Amino acid sequence: MWVWAALGATLAAFMLLRELWVFVVLPSMAQAARSRGNLRAAIRILERVLRSPSLFGDRLRTDPRFRLAWFYLENQQPEQAIEMCRMCLTRRLRPAQESSVRRRHADCLEAAGRSEEAERERQIAAKRLQESPRDIGFYVSLGQSLVAERRYSEAVEAYEQALTHLNAERRSPAKRPVAALERGPLLLRLALALWESGHPEAALERAKETLEHADDLPTGMVAHSVAALACSDRGDLEEAEHHYEQSIALALRLRNVERAATYLATLGGIQRRRGMLVKAVQTCQRAAEMSLQARRAARLAEFECMLYWGKFEDARRMLDQAARAHPLPTPSDERRSQAVIQLGRAWLEAEAGYPERALERLREAEKTLGKEEKLGLACLSTEAWILACLGRREEARQRLEEAQEQAERFADSRATQAGCCSMLGRATWELGEDALCLQLWERFLQLPPDPADLPRAHYYIGLCRARRGENEAARAAFQAAIDTGLQTYHTQKAEERLAVLSEKT
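Above: the chain's sequence. Below: its structure in token form.
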């Protein structure tokens, strides 16, 4: 009898081990494959999981289906992704979990061109979320939905509530292991929301907290990239470059060439801001050669280099290539990315002397970016500049005042403040308001700005001084632009203006 009992126990243990392998180990392997950039392998592993029979029926397949839906969407397979979400929704889910599934389902439906169905699904998702108990799942799901709507300040509050609940769970021995696994991803979500809402110091603190406790390469890779964003916002460009280098190194250790190339492109952007324009272009070209998916980020960084050089046709070509690059998985993210490209086109056309075209491009960008926090302010300050160029003085002044008021909310974000001062400084120059123009550019210099932006600031200060008849001060400003040693469009313009002043004397 004991032989049969032993055989039964052995068989039961074997079956449980098999369940553990199929529904715990294999999904982890799929996630690891995706972290290495091997999307197709990740899909194959999860498809194998879903084909495997289970002692517990269908209940263990919800999470693999939810992950697979995202992988299908990344792989441009929206119909298969829709089917995975639909199968998830056939089971009874917690309200917050159902809300997350329905939001993903909506993204998949929209990617398949079924926009009306997607909107209905989002409405149901919002309703189900409000029916959820106020636990960690609720606050994480709420934060994700707010981020999707670009309401970053509110998302920060939601993620902080989730973190409070998670810290309470860490005090429970039974829940401590799971809480430890959830903490890193939650801190990174919070850090990104903090950065988007204009709080780089807090974002850096959360990113560094993640790095202190991260013991896996993917989490460390993302944490370094978030830390780099925060450092660049603060103006610590060397530290930002160091963090991006760490992200690239970790991505290469994971053999994730796509991620490494994307981080390399963003590193090129940091090099551009430091004034190393030639090196930045070389870095971006390397990134574009490494991965098609990194090409958009690379071309956008190259566009800014061309704009700084005043090579407007090359800048247009870079934006055209960025617009045609590999699309992002979700339609909302792709729309936002295309809107950022349109904002870049507005800057380009205004700088090149075509304000009518610039305003058309800006109106396209505003449709998506207008209600965002930081990018909405960028649109508003850009509009003030373009309207001033068009001679629409009253409208320009109104936008200028609105931008100054909104900028007060971003006192902690040096990059946002600098961008706003730069746009409004150009607007006030076109409006002939020299005193305010000088005030804005002097404030810009006190932030301090990125090294690459110094020639522009000194050039506009020189223009104001010259128009006020302060020729010696104008010469000093134009000379300061030249003395930066950077070969930019505004350095060249400063040389021309200095030559004119010299001829007059």
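The two ends are 114 Å apart (CA to CA).
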